[in-house]
Structures are given as C-alpha cells and as structure tokens.
Amino acid sequence: MAPGKLFIGRRVRELREAGKATQAAFAERLGISTSYLNQIENNQRPVSATVLLALAENFQIDIASISGSDGDRLLSALREALADPVFDVHSPGLQELKLVVQNAPAFAHALIACHQAYRRNSEQLASFDDRMVRADAFAEPAPYEEVRDFFHFVDNYIHELDLAAERLAAALQVPEREPGAAFAGHLERRHGVRILRASPGETILRRYDPAARALFLNPYSPVATRSFQMAFQLAGLEQEEEIGAIVLRAGFRTAEAAEICRIGLMNYFAGALMLPYRPFLAAAKELRHDLELMAARFGASLEQVAHRLSTLQRPGLKGVPVFFARIDRAGNITKRHSAARLQFARYGAACPLWNAHQAFETPGRIIRQLAETPDGVRYLCVATEIAKGGGGFNAPHRRYAIALGCEVAHAGDFVYGDGLDLTSRAAFDPIGISCRICERVDCVQRAVPPLKRRLAVDHDSRAILPYSIL
After folding, report:
1. CATH topology for 9-66?
2. What is the model's pLDDT at position 88?
3. In the chain, which end has fewer C-beta atoms inside a 10 angstrom radius, N or C?
4. Prediction pTM value
C-alpha cells in the first residue's frame, strides 16, 4: 500500500514552540505563508516534500525520523482496542483514528489503558479468580503488560543506555576483542568481580554474590549467553543510577512493573554492549543483514543479533526498519518489536500462515517468505528455529522460533531477498496480524471469526469454515 499523506502538525508545533518562535517567524524560515503553517499545525493540510526539506535544513531535523512510522504502533494498538465488540456502536474510520493519534496521543494511550483494564476485569470475572476479593485488583494493570508497552512506545530504543554501552564497548575494544574475555577482564579490574563456574546442580544462568564479589555462570550455557550475562552484570554495576532515573520517569503504577522494567533496561544495556551501535549498524550494511555472519563477527547468538537489529532507531542514524519476534510452539509471541509498519497483535497468537510457525518443521534452517498483510503492505520475512538446552541428555530443551523481516522496498539490503521474485503478486502469501482482527474472509487457516464482522450459517452447505463472513 502506498504511503499516505503526511500529517505531522503536532510535531511541527512542538518544534516551533521549543524554539519560542511565533507562527509568522517560523513560517518565514520555512519559506511558506503563515496561513499554510497554521493549517499544517492543525492537520488541515499535509506537509509537502519542500517543507520537509526546509525543516531538515533549518532545524537539523532527520527527515526519516519526523516522517517515519512512529505513530503506526499507537495507531495499530488503538485499532485493535476498538475492534472489541464493546465498541460496536462506535466505529470510527481510519482517518479519524489517525487524527486522534496525531493530535491527541495521550488520549489514545488512555483509551488503550482503559481497554486493557476492561479485558483484565472480564477475564478475572470469567475465571472467578480469588483475586476478586481484592478491591484494587481490577484497577491495577498487569506489570508485564505495562513494561511491554513502555518499550513498545519508546520504539525499543533507550538513547542514554545505548550511548553509554557504545562508549564502554569502544573502551574495551569490542567487537575487535572477544566480548566474554573483555567483559571478564573489566569486571575484575574495575569492580574486583571474579567470574566463576556455577555448581552442576544449580539451574541458573547467572548468580551474583556481592559479598564475595563473585559472578557465577552456568558452564553449560553457550559462550554468547555467558558473555551477555557478564554484560548484564556490568549494567547493574555501572548504570544503576541512569536506569533508576529512566524507571522513575516512566511512572509505573506498581513496584513489580518498575522492577521488571529495571531488568529489561539492564538487558537492553547488555545487548547494546555486546553489539555496539555504530559498528553493528556498519556490519549490518556490509553483511546485508546476514544473521549468521553477524553473529560470528560479534560473538553473539542469532537471537541477540535479530533483536538488536530491531533497536537501530537512533535519531539521525537509523538502520533499516525491521520487525522482530520470538514465538513458542503454541504460537505465543514472547518477544516482539516492530520498527516497520507491521505491528503485532497485543492479544492472541500470531497468524498461522506466517512462516515463523514453519520454522519448527525445518530446524537448523533459515527460511524465507514473501508476505502481504490485509492493508496491502508487502514484507520479506525470515525465520529460524532455535533450541536451548544444556546440562546433558536428560535436561529439558526449550524450542522457539525467531522471526525478522522488512518491507519489500528494503529487501535489497538483505541477503535473504536474493533470488526471490519481488515483482510477482502471486509470490506473496496473504497473512494477517491476528484472527480476531483480520478482515480476510477467505482464509483457510482462520481460527476464530473477526470481532467486527457478522456471520451467516447455511445448514444446507458447508465449506472449510462452518460460517460465512459478511
């Protein structure tokens, strides 16, 4: 689907007010009339390419940043919330929702939060949970959901931590040096922390003993995992104040959410330390996003590389916008982020037609798929199965798939796009986001009817589905 007209009135107004400029003065610098600027700020007219260039030249604004799809995440979440039958009487159109996201994002967030609370209350009432006796149980959001939304709406990029990790990586000469050795040496020299092997009976990845100044690591873990756990410990030792400030600014409702976010921020720093921004971005371009080659260059795992690619959102130095997800065998999405227009459903499993599920059938292989979502946007999708075990033959092994992708316009930047016919419509598989909000009426894999559509049942005829979608 071709991109629509660009309405960024709120952002232009914020830029003008930050410089304490009047509309007349600001319009003069842009080379437009005051009335045109007033219409732009009120989203009555879209921004032209000429105005975008003027913003870039006069105010050092990154065009990719100001015209990017950062509102897509909020728009997608709002559309999914309003697909709930509770809103059947009120069905705002797409253009109305875009205006809300552009002009009143705080209202959109509030409505999404209300819908989340409604869903939690309904689920608790349906299960007759014993928490019903707690008067405050229904008002409190689930801590994990609250933290997930925090990372989602900051574009999964934490500028302060990313810069700090990049500085430390440069000082430790990562990735030129093997990260595990560099981190272990720094922990001992700077913090007096020794790296020791955890005992065979301990089912842990990492255990830190502050009194003994010792970090115990699971000897069965892969090298990349042990390196990540050392980087995580460095986050706790060197970034505690910065992480605390970020958590405080986020204003979480519960102590549990704040602690979960603290762990998430430490994980973020660890990933940024192992895969420092500028060297990693340069490697992604040079190696054309080849996950295996990048993992070998940085001493990282495929999952660490794929996840890091989705965080390359530094203003003025962005990478190719990609989506990333980790899916278990039941179809649950346990990690998700999208810098592309594709936005994952907040509830329910992933589309069964997505190649991420097929990855479980072909362990050890990276598989490709050309896919098209109901809005007409086309994507290059890459998926592979990952198994994590350790501890011997009888130890449990976790299996999941990781998925990465981009819009086809960027497929040339990926080695995985080579040899695929990107011009043939028949080459693209029709996929959705989630059955409950997917509008496709002829999908043979549909699990449940769409929430916003009426159904018809013919007792004298039966197709693949036992109903027709009107």
Report:
1. 434 Repressor (Amino-terminal Domain) (1.10.260)
2. 65
3. C
4. 0.75
